[in-house]
Amino acid sequence: MYDLSKGADWLNQFLTTYMSPWLAVVVECVIIGVVLLLAYALLALFYIYFERKVCAAFQCRLGPNRVGPFGIFQSVADMFKILIKELISLNHIDKFLFALAPYLVIIASMLAFAVLPWGNGLQIIDFNVGIFFLLAVSSIGVLGILLAGWSSNNKFTLIGALRSGAQMVSYELSMGLCVVTMVVIAGSMNVTDIVRSQEHLWFIFSGHIPAIIAFVIFMIAGTAETNRGPFDLPEAESELTAGYHTEYSGIHFGFFYLAEYLNLFIVSGVAALLFFGGWMPLHIPGFDAFNHIMDYIPSVVWFIGKAVALSFIIIWFKWTFPRLRIDQLLTLEWKYLLPINLFNLVLMVLVVTFGLYL
To answer: How distant, in Å, are the alpha carbons of 47, 79, 90, 256 from that of 74?
Structure first.
């Protein structure tokens, strides 16, 4: 499969030919930043349209169908609408923290984007603790949510923020243990090494029962981590209006809205990385002709396709299960998922120790 890092090497050589090394690095960073922001915006527009269509299909409706062919420009129209909405200034709030909160949520998503392996060689940051870095930066988002609720000087937003904080901190434990379980079988925390170790068979197949258990728990915890139904208590309209971002308007509200959809992609991308080989094609041992054909599909298509497919499952959750109460939500994590996760981690260690994986 073609290594996309060759393109980055060519760009670096081209820039260093015509400018000093430090200026070339600055230009490269600017290009990467612009590409990331563009990918961020395009993915957000796609996911808004995608969820509306999936939701409509579940409810036997059409979904967006008027603005553009099949309603594909409805998300673009919504984007322009939210961009021109007024930013309302509130009295008796902490204005600095109130303005900072949505940017913290966006920064957390952007940093996580930088570690995802979009394709073979198409990765911005690649170092030996990449998966640990991904978990660490994804935790920054909860700070933005807590600050948004506290700085708004509104009891309902504060309740929504505290609920969200308790929920995200709790389910991060399960997500972290699922990641550690798969790191055990990969033998590395380097994202590229994790992908390449699935060259012959994805972990969801080679890891046996512990990998399947870890995948199921990761999807449940990832749904709760992104505050999506049936774990969307922080935004429960019947209880808290809009939750922790009730007092936000215009583009500041849009930042929270965008971050939720992009976190959906990040969770799905990490699941694709850990269980379905990331950008690695589907290879079946012994079927060399089939494997050779799969190698022709670009690595970027493999990764994005897997992430979107897993996102569909998370969206499916939202329109299938009723919303949980806060006590049910925390009971599920602390009494069930966490003990199962700890047992599953020990089970994976035994599988790897005795060489039982494929």
So the answer is: 12, 9, 30, 19
CB contact burial 183-208 (16+ within 10 A = b; e otherwise): bbbbeebbbbbbbbbbeebbbbbbbb
Q: In the predicted model, is pLDDT for residue 201 greater than 70?
A: yes
Length of the chain: 358
* Cα–Cα distance for residue pair 122/298, rounded to 1 Å: 12
Alpha-carbon span 178 to 225, nearest angstrom:
13
Q: Where would I find the beta strands (DSSP E) of 196-298?
A: none
Residue 237 in this model has a pLDDT that exceeds 70: no
For residue 11, what are its two tokens?
Answer: 């760009």
239 or 26, higher pLDDT: 26
Separation of alpha carbons 22 and 287, rounded Å: 48
Residue 96 has pLDDT above 60, yes or no: yes
155 residue type, one letter: K
